[in-house]
Amino acid sequence: MILKLIKHDLKAILPDFYGIYLALIVLSVIGPFLLRVSPEWLVVIYMLVVVGTFIAVGVVTFIALINLFNKRLFSHQGYLNLTLPVSTTSLLGSKIITGMIISILTGFVTAVSFFIFAISITWLTLGDLSRIAPIWDAIVESKILWELGRIYAALTPLGLANMAYSLALLLFVITFTHTSFVRKNRLLVGIILYVGIGLALSTIQTNFFNVNLLVGDGDLELLAWALNDVALYLPRFLASTSVKIHWLNLLMMTGLYAAIAGIFFSLSQYLIEHKIEVE
Fold first, then answer.
1. 155-172 pLDDT per residue, tens
2. Is 181 exposed, middle or buried (0-12, 13-18, 19+ CB in 10 A)?
3. Is the separation of the CB atoms in 28 and 114 below 8 Å?
């Protein structure tokens, strides 16, 4: 049943992102050409559009997540969801998972756009992508891609736990503002509560759980020389580079975010089952 809930949530929320995703891809394709051949004023306009688009991505994502929790749980539509023959855990869990899918998908489209832009601008600048073959060979031989993959795999659980924590906090705040505890000024109370809890937890994390997850080591002098002679010094710099993962710290922080997410999720579940007021 939870898969059906996620499917319906995605069908309801994804159309809000189609325009933003299309804009990112279009800008990544035409951007390199505009930067190479366009007059200065057109380049400035393009940069302003790019900045505006990225701001819009963040705003649209945040608003969509708010609507996911607010409208689909606490409006008339939410009333229908609450009457479905599913547990509160499944209902709230589907919203958290949907929010994570949307966030990951938006990040993926943004990364693809950056990749398209980088490849295009490199091709236009060098005129021949084969000229970067020595750089690519140096990267492959240094096994830095393997290291990056290992780091990404190690940090993925932490990223997911952090994402779940952020969504669970948002869910809790929206749920709390629809209970009998808040009768007036729900928007203002929600903003104060969200910002206040976020700042409090961030302060605690900074003061008591500020640990190193990764420690990198490399000869920066070789990197400076590589700017002048890539083929000669980049392989040496990459060979001197190593990254150490502090697994204990990583597990601790992942568990911390997961535990906080679980607390907010449980609080939201309790409020919906005992204190909720559907509009």
1. 999 999 999 999 999 999
2. exposed
3. yes
> Is the per-residue pLDDT at 258 higher than 70?
yes
* Residue 244 dihedral angles phi and psi, to the nearest 5°: -105, 130
Q: Phi and psi of 185, rounded to 5°?
A: 50, 50
23 vs 76, higher pLDDT: 23
Of the two residues 223 and 94, the one the predictor is more confident about is 94
Q: Which residues are CB-contacts of 155 (< 8 A; sequence separation ≥ 6)? A: 213, 250
Exposure of 133 by Cβ count < 10 A (0-12 exposed, 13-18 middle, 19+ buried)? exposed
Give the number of C-alpha atoms closer than 13 A to the C-alpha of residue 180, restricted to the C-beta side.
5
Determine the 3-state secondary structure of 39 from DSSP.
coil
DSSP 8-class letter at 92? H
